[in-house]
Amino acid sequence: MQMHHDVKGQLPPSVLRIVVGTVRGKPVYGAGMSGWVTLFPFLEEENFYEELDLEKGPNDFENRELVARTPAVHLCPSMPDLELDPGSSSYALSTGSEYYRDYENNGAVIDALNVYDREDEEGGCKPAIEPATASGTVSVEGKPISGMVVTLQPIGTTTGPKATAAIVNGNFTFDEKARLHGGQYLVRFTVMPSSLISRLPEEASETAVPAGSVVPRKYDIDSKLTWNLTPGAENTSTFEIELRQPDP
Questions:
Q1: Residues in domain DUF1559 (predicted)?
Q2: How far is residue 203's CA from residue 164's CA, in Å, rounded to a whole number?
Q3: Considering the entire predicted model, what is its pTM?
Q4: Percent of the chain residues past pLDDT 90, beyond the cut
Q5: For the chain, N or C: smaller number of CB within 10 Å?
């Protein structure tokens, strides 16, 4: 990852963009290979990299057999290959995008999959699926909080994607760049790493989460909070959560 950044000047995108067709003479873009493939030349996997057709998707004929393989460097020695789906890595990948399946560079962590399925988008036009936007407020003991992250995770028949937003002075926003679809989402809250909290705007320092605070499981991994989003509507919500100090 460091070598990629040194050479390219940026982290890899979470997914490579490919042209999958045209609409009214304009290209339709889809998600191709994940950011994993961009690391192959830096991991002594140049031959594998050159075999892949980066203009095609992982499920296209040209790549179908190749993406079922996982280079040894992508496997943790403590995890046998048999525990993974074909083409998966046992590591998570920190990429240059804060959004799942994005082509920009802002910084995030995505899951272990080596490849992604197609997600079409009209080039030069609005996305093929009208996105939903959302915003809200978060408070602890009735006071706005900063230095936390809210995650919306699609559930049920919602097609996604998963998205995160920073909470600053009790406010958060998911704009069209988050590419949220209409449907039901599980809502989870986590505390930012201290290195990110220290970089919050000065005006947020008074509302910053207390050092060492932990989000109770009922608001995070065991959350039952849900939110129904409607495309084109003003989706707003208010959350009152709790924080605790870690057990001694």
A1: 1-102
A2: 22
A3: 0.52
A4: 27
A5: C
Supply the mean pLDDT for the chain: 76
What the block records as the tokens of 224 is: 């039952």
pLDDT value, residue 150: 93
The stretch 79-104 carries a mean pLDDT of 55
Check residue 242 and give its pLDDT. 95
Residue predicted with more confidence, 229 or 59: 229
Name the residue ranges covered by the structural domains of the chain.
2-122, 134-241
